[in-house]
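Subject: design request, 244 residues
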């Protein structure tokens, strides 16, 4: 079973996870630890994973996977017992989050509902993402394959990341594209809902042009605007220069 050092580490990790919930979830501020443990599915999922991961490291059979299964059934969060997760980890809302077997997550990471840290294909070995410290992963984001996400980066909602992301970057879109550089002390979530997308921008430009043309046609139809004068071209008198 879990030894005393492992138990001390487990208690310390849970304490830091509770502190992270209070710090990053406005709804949890001023709420007692017992209430957070009983009513926050994201915190419950992390707690269950800490315990399952400890048993996994100790080589205990069946129990880690069974605990992970029960946690998924009750919280809607699926975390493989082998996944390595750092301190002060917070899952906001939790529903639909999936974290694969070879995922490695640093400290002070925040993940929103519906995010997936998954693999691609049937390759063995390291096949899931590695996430640095102080990273924020938005709702519905998909991080696929053994990509590396640099520290202090932000992954926007519904972004699909299949390539490495440098530190202090904000990524949006499908496939994920860089929209701005982040700052280490910037805790704002504005980038997570940033609609910046080349396709969206192009559609907006087309819509603006169509609206302008419709306005012009309407004015012409109602006689509020003169159409351009068309001058008919007449052949020049005299010999045709083309005749040589």
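Subject: RE: design request

Done. Sequence follows.
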């Amino acid at each position: 079973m879990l030894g005393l050092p492992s138990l001390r580490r487990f208690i310390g990790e849970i304490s830091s996870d509770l502190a992270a919930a209070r710090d990053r979830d406005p709804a949890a501020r001023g709420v007692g630890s017992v209430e957070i443990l009983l009513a926050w599915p994201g915190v419950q999922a992390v707690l269950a994973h800490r315990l399952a991961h400890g048993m996994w490291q100790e080589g205990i059979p069946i129990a880690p996977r069974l605990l992970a299964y029960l946690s998924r059934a009750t919280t809607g969060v699926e975390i493989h017992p082998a996944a390595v997760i750092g301190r002060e980890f917070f899952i906001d809302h939790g529903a639909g989050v999936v974290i694969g077997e070879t995922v490695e997550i640093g400290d002070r990471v925040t993940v929103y509902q519906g995010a997936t840290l998954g693999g691609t294909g049937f390759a063995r070995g390291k096949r899931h993402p590695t996430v640095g410290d102080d990273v924020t992963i938005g709702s519905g984001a998909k991080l696929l394959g053994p990509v590396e996400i640099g520290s202090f980066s932000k992954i926007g909602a519904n972004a699909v990341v299949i390539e490495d992301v440098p530190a202090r970057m904000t990524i949006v879109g499908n496939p994920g594209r860089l929209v701005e550089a982040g700052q280490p002390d910037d805790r704002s979530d504005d980038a997570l809902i940033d609609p910046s997308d080349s396709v969206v921008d192009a559609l907006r430009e087309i819509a603006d042009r169509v609206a302008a043309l419709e306005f012009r046609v309407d004015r012409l139809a109602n006689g509020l605007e003169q159409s351009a004068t068309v001058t008919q071209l007449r052949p020049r008198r005299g010999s045709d220069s083309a005749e040589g």
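The domain at 4-193 is CATH 2.160.10.10 (UDP N-Acetylglucosamine Acyltransferase; domain 1).
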